Amino acid sequence: MAEKVQLHDFVEVDYTGKLTDGLVFDTTIEKVAKEHNLRASKHKYSPAAVCIGERQVLPGLDAQLADKEIGKEYMVTLSPEIAFGKRDIKKIKIIPLNNFQKNNLNPQPGLQVDIDGEMGFITSVSGGRVVVNFNHPLAGKEVIYTFTVRRKVTDQKEKVQAFLSAMFRIPAEHLKVEIKENAATVVMPGDLPAQISTILAKKLIELTGLKDILFKKKEPVKK
After folding, report:
1. pTM of the complete model
2. What is the distance of C-alpha 209 from the center of its chain?
3. Domain 155-223 has CATH 3.30.70.2210
């Protein structure tokens, strides 16, 4: 009988997301990306390393990973509530055109903008007003995912790298992790506030069983 994975296991999983009409919008598999013209020049397609139950993938997909056999393909249909959320009219906002002009921006329908740290898409420009939709582009849509758990991650260093990589959207190779005497030292690309590093350390100790986690900032290269 094939091995099954459980809640809080670290795993590598391949998945492909598509709309109910068959349009593929996301995948971890390079072959699928090429077939559906999703290939990005700098994007590396590989299985996603996640901790089951920590919502490092869509909530609905995350909930389906536990108790699955390694190597077996599954398919699940996700409602908007557990995928990209319902479409919220409150997230469609009208912003004065001169707010963009002050920053030398020429707003056009379809343009993605970052306003106060929130990403949105411009839907219309008229009468000195710009309508920006801050809903996710797939909000309100039912989606279908096929997924396969490729393997269980057991190495402590891999676990720490996987968790932080998913948390901060940083490639695992940019995180230097050293395990010694059941404690981990992590060198991050940037500095973490003390409160955040304390919370992360506590969570990682809980999930990995390590005794201690120490975060360090990457030292600048001396010329």
Report:
1. 0.83
2. 24
3. yes
